[in-house]
Amino acid sequence: MTGTYLPGAFATHKVEAMVKLLGLDPLDAEQWDFLQSETTQDLQAAPGSGKTTLIGLKLALMADAWTSATCGVCVLSHTNTAKNEITDRVASLAAGRSLLRYPHFIGTIQSFVHTFLALPAVRTKGVEVRSVDDTAFETAAIRLLQHPDYSTLRSYVERQRDGTGIVTGATFAYKDGELVVTGSTREPPFRAETASGKQLSHLKRTLARRGVFRYQDMYAIAQQYLAKHPGIVPAVSARFPFVLLDEMQDTSTTQQELLDLVFASSPTVMQRVGDTNQGIYSDAGAVNGSDSAFPLAGAAELPVSRRFGPQIAAVASSLAVRRPQQVHGAGPDGQVAVLLFDEATAIDVVSTFERMAASIVPEDTLLRRPPRVLGARQGRGNSQAYPQSISCYVPGYTPPGRPTAHRLLVDAARAAGSQWRSGADNHEAATELWNALRASFVPLTGEGLPALGRLERSAATPGGKVRILLRELLTHGATFDEASWGMITEQLSLQMQLLADRPLKAVGLEFTPAVEIAATVGGVPRSSAAVPAVRSVPGTIQSAKGETHAATLILECLEKTGKKFDVTEALRMVAEGSDPQQELKSVQAAVQLIFVGATRPTHLLVLAAHRNRSKRYAEAMIDAGWDVRDLTEH
C-alpha cells in the first residue's frame, strides 16, 4: 500500500490518542497486534471481544492517515445491519467520515458485487436493472408463467407439490463460460433439452432482459464478466489496496470464490475478521476445506470477551463446534440458569424468565437492552414432537416482517431515552434509536435509509428535521401519552418519506403503554414497590446474530432433522464434557445455533428444556454453579 497512506498511521502515540478520544478501554496485546498489522491476515474473534470496536478504531486511524485520492479502503460485511454499524462508528469522527466517500467503499459483499461487477456487466448488454430481489423475482416469475408460451412448464408445475418453487427459484449459474439456468440449490430441475427445461430457461432469460434478477444471479453474472473482461481484475484490485472483510464466517463458497478472483493474486492486503463458531448459514462453512479456509493457520486470536463474565464464557467454550475455543469472560459477573418444563408449564417459561431478568439485571441496563427470547424455529411443523418452535411457548407469536423489526418503536424510544437521560453514552443512545427508526420505516425499493452520521444537520432539510424529532423522542419519549405519540409518529412518517425520497412501509409504530408489575422470583416479591416491567422480545437466534442483550432466553426447539432437541443436546454436551467435533453433524448444526444465542447476553443466560429429557443433567448444572428451576414443582 505504498503511497496510499502516511507511514506511522498505527504508531503507539496515535493509537493511544484515538483510544482516548473515543473513550475506549485500554487495548490488550492481541488487539494491539491486529491494530498495527499492515499485512494480509485472519483474526479469529470470540463473541464480545470488541471486534467491531477494533475495526472502527483501525479504520479511523487509517482514514486519518490516508493520502491517495484515487485508491481507497474497501470494507465488506454480510448484512446491512453490520454495514450500518461500521459506518455509524466511522461517521462519529471527522476523519472517519472520509471513508464514506469516493474512493472508499463500505458495504455488503452483495452490494460490492453489484456495484463493481454485475451491474456494469448487465448494462453492457443494454439491460436496465429494475430489481435485484428474490421476492420481486418470484412475483414476476409467477405472473409470466401464465403466458401461453409456458403452458408445458405450467402444467408440470401445477401437478407438483410446491411446484411453483421450480419457477420462483430459477437461478443463473456460471458454467463453461456461459450462464445456465439452475434451481436455487444449483441443481437444474429439468434436463436442458426437455420442453419444460427449455421453457424454464426462456422464462428466466426473458425476466433477465426485463431487468428482474435474484440476488444469487449477480454472482454468476459477475463471474462471467470477469472471465470475458480480465482487465477488470487489476483495475478493481488497484482501486482497493486494503480490504477488510467482517463476519468472515458467513462468507459462502460463491462469495469467497469471487473475492479470490479479484484479490487473491493481487498485492491487495486482505484482513478477514470473524468467529468460525458463529457461522450459522448452510453454505457458510463450505470454504473450510479450501485454500481460503477461515481462519488460516497462524491466525491471530481475540479470546477475551468483554460482553460477559466467566459463567457464560464457560458455556460458550463447551459449545464451540467448528473450532476449539477457550473463551475468557472479562465482562459482568453474569448468571446461567436452566428452566425445566413440561407441556403444562411451557407457557410459563417466558414470564418466569422476565421475572428473573427484572430481579438480576440492573434496571437501567434492562431498559437499554431489553431481554430477548430466542429459538431456532419460528412455527410448528407437521411433527408431533414437542416443543418444536417459539410458537409453543408464545401463543399467537407472529414472526416479524423483517429481521430488523425486533421491537416496537415506542419500546426502543423508552430504552434509548433512559440511556440518554443517564448521560452514559448519548451517541450510542441516538444511534440505537435511529436504527430502530430505520427498522420501523422500511423502503419498498432500493437501499435502506442512511446511517445516523450521514443525516444532514440543517433544520431546513428532512435529515435535519428528523434529527430534531429524534432529540424530542430521546428527551420526552418516555412520558408521551397515546395522543402525543400519534402526533410525533405522524411527523416522523412525513419526514422519513421525504428523506428516503421513495415509498416506505411503516411497521411497529403502535403505541403501547408502559406496564408496571411486581416482579417475583421463586414466589418471593423482589420488593414491595412495583417495578417497571421490560417486556421480552421474541425472535429467532439467526435474527439476533451480532446483537448484545442484557438477558437472553434460549427456547428448546426441534432441530431440523426432526430427531433431536437442540437445548437438550447442548446441556448433555456441557454436562458430559464431550468433544463437540465428535458429535453428529445434525447435532453440531443445532448446537452451533445455541452457541450464537448463548453468547448474546451480558448478565443473564437462561436455557429452557423439557424436564423429561434434561432433568438427568440437573446435578451437573448445579455443580457448575447454574441456577436450575423445575417449573413443574411450583
From TrEMBL:
Pfam families: UvrD-helicase (PF00580). Keywords: ATP-binding, DNA-binding, Helicase, Hydrolase, Nucleotide-binding. Signal peptide: none annotated. SUPFAM superfamilies: P-loop containing nucleoside triphosphate hydrolases. ATP binds at residues 45-52. Residues 24-324 form the UvrD-like helicase ATP-binding domain. It comes from the Bacteria. PANTHER family: ATP-DEPENDENT DNA HELICASE SRS2, UVRD / RECB / PCRA DNA HELICASE FAMILY MEMBER. This is UvrD-helicase domain-containing protein. It comes from Streptomyces plicatus.
